[in-house]
Amino acid sequence: MKTKTNFFSLALILSLLLICFTTVSSVHGNSSERLTPLTPTDTEGVLVFQAEHTNSPLGNWEIISPGHPRFFPGASNDVMLYFTGNAPNLGPPDSPIKYTFKAPESGTYQLTIRSSRILEGARNDHCNDYFVRMEGDFEPGEFGSHDTFSKSILESDTKHYFSSVPDREWGWTVLGERRIDGENVKKRLFYNLKKDEVYTLTVSGRSKRAIMDYIVLFDTSKVSMADVRDGEVKLMLEPRADGSSSDD
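RE: above sequence
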């Protein structure tokens, strides 16, 4: 009788464990709880992630906000992510941080990151890039005369950089760069995404003192890079206690 009771107790425990495992798998596979919070905008076809809203360990990324000795104005919400690893000009992918999202509509999306840097005497072409990679059911995209890299490259760490941005001022990443057949090839980063599919963008540090404000993926059929760069896409930020926003 005791053996029979133990058998049923073990069966009950295994059943409960199976239910828990199935529930956890379902939550992590489909629930919006695992998605990175989006910053609302006034423009359709734009996904915006505040850099600091990742759930990943920051590693060599440091949050800078008012009161920090390196703080300077211009970041949305007055918060930025500052990379402290590697050298000012290069280094391996370091401290990967992830942003997981669901595509609102099928389309060709372009990646750009609002960025700045602190040179501290470094050359003008230093402190100006990251590594990025995309995971999920996508294909390489194109827009007009611009194509992009192969899917295998887009799925692996690819240099993504901004240039001609003065020290402690703000600009945008535009091009990715990879070494292919002995040449440095530069292309914009386009992804053909599918509606309601879940994707993960990973950003890793490359050059020291590069700074992220926020990340944008925009549908090229609805929004242009010029719209993003020139401020035509407005972030709908939470007002501060004084009634203003950090973009005022």
